[in-house]
Amino acid sequence: MLSGPSGVGKGTVINALKTLCPQLLGREISVSISKTTRKPRVGEEEAVHYYFTDRETFLADVEKGAFYEHAEYAGNLYGTPRAPIEEKINAGGVVVLDIDTQGAFQVRASGADAMLVFLLPPSMEELENRLRGRKTEAEEAICKRLTIARKECALAPQFDETVYNIEVETAAREICALIEKKLAQINE
């Protein structure tokens, strides 16, 4: 699982990870697609980037136990649908989850054999530059995300591993090596 503050580059690093190491120790690597109540950003597609839904439907899915994890972040709900994750793992694959800290701790509490990796920005100033550079949110939303980011970064020591996203390819290679190490331990 990969967690980190909004704007740290999780999606970009995950895309690089898929390119640099599509298979790890013979296992196919895939990325989970989350469901969310937030509105799509420009260029985001249904069932490619997220499954977009309304709050009422999302909460009904929570009641049904349809999520592997779910959390609220910056006023929106996010969750990882359980069925696709279990199918890929049962088929011998490796699934990378892009989730917030609440979701990561939910997965850990469930007893799942997962590795929690926290992606850190080079600095808070750089994180702010990245958030502003997206030009997708109003000032109030950016300030809220930065406040949350500071709290999340303070949780990094509670994760199994931390990786700094100074350069995307380097961060992706570090995560690839961490996954390979975890798979080797499982295969022992």
- Amino-to-carboxy terminus distance: 21 Å
How many beta-strand elements?
10
| Poorly predicted parts | none
- Structural class, by secondary structure, is alpha/beta
Q: What is the number of helical segments per DSSP (H or I, 4+ residues)? A: 7
Strand arrangement within the widest β-sheet reads: 5-4-7-6
Helix content bin:
40-55%
Give your account of this protein's structure.
By secondary structure, the chain is α/β, with parallel strands linked by helices. It contains seven helices and ten strands. The protein has helices at about 10-20, 55-65, 80-90, 100-110, 125-135, 140-155, 170-185; strands spanning about 1-5, 25, 25-30, 35, 50, 65-75, 75-80, 95, 115-120, 160-165. The strands form three sheets. The protein has a four-stranded mixed sheet. A three-stranded parallel sheet has the order 1-9-10, with helices on one face. It has a three-stranded mixed sheet with strand order 2-3-8. Strand 6 (about 65-75) and strand 7 (about 75-80) form a beta hairpin. Helix 1 packs across helix 7 (about 170-185). The radius of gyration is 16 Å and the shape is globular. It starts with a strand and ends with a helix. The mean pLDDT is about 90.
